[in-house]
Structures are given as C-alpha cells and as structure tokens.
Amino acid sequence: MAELDLVNRDPNNINDHVKVAFEDVLAEPDGAQSIDCIWRCSYNCFQCSKGCCYNVMSILCAIPLAFVWGWSFAVIAFYHVWTVAPFLKCFMINCGCCQKFYGTCIQCYLGPICETYGLFFSNIVVKNA
C-alpha cells in the first residue's frame, strides 16, 4: 500500500476545475478600485471564510461520505467482477458461435447465388451507337 501524500492531495488532478483563489473570483479593474486596506480585508475575509467553511464541512461530512463512496465503489467492483465480466464472456462465446453459423450459411447459400449472378451479369455487353 502506498503512503498517503499529505502535501499533494490531488496527484491525478481530478479536481483542477475546483481550484478557486481570490483572484479567480474577485477583481477590480483600473478606475474602479477600493482602498488598499479594504482590498486586503476582503482578501483575508474570503480566505478565512472559505477555509473555515471547508474545514467545518470536512469535519462533519468527510468520514461518512468516504464510507459511502468506499461502499459504493466496492459494490460496483463486485458487480463487475461477479456479474458483468462473466456475462460479457458468455455473450462473446455465443457471438463467436453465431458468427461461425452465419458465416457458413452465407458461404454455402448466398455465396454461390451471388457468384452465379455475377457471372450472368458480367457477360452483358453494352454498346453505344
């Protein structure tokens, strides 16, 4: 089992779309800027409220949700291992049998008919006058 990386918690960049910084949400264009201390206070308020809210929700919900998602993915894995994969293998075996049967019928019945029609129509000569 690999060790848990407490620094890089999204090594596969699954949640890149959720990275939200103050600069991504709030921006004051030239000519419409507040006082510097208000801008700093807004930044600190944004960072603090975002961090506190996320931490409180994580404390309350992370463990139960991790349990639910672990259970859900275990059920999906079990379903695929014990139901989907065997059914797919059975289906592929039966399709192979049907493919041989269908191919044999085509070669034995339809093949000679098409060959006969091909020879018949290949002897037609069209002359433009």
DSSP strand count: 0
Ends apart, CA distance between termini? 85 Å
Briefly note the structural class of the backbone. Answer: mainly alpha
* Share in β-strands: under 5%
Low-confidence stretches: none
* Average residue-wise pLDDT: 91
Describe the sheet with the most strands.
none
Number of helices: 2
- As for the number of domains, it is 1
One letter per element, helices H and strands E, the order comes to: HH
Structure write-up:
There is one protein chain. This protein is mainly α and 129 residues long. The protein has one domain. The chain has helices at residues 22-25, 36-122. The longest helix has 87 residues, at 36-122. The radius of gyration is 34 Å and the shape is elongated.
Based on the model shown, name its key terms.
2 helices; 129 residues; elongated; mainly alpha; single chain
Describe the structure concisely for a colleague.
Helix content is 71%, strand content 0%. With 129 residues, the protein is mainly alpha-helical.
Topology summary:
Layout: H1 22-25, H2 36-122
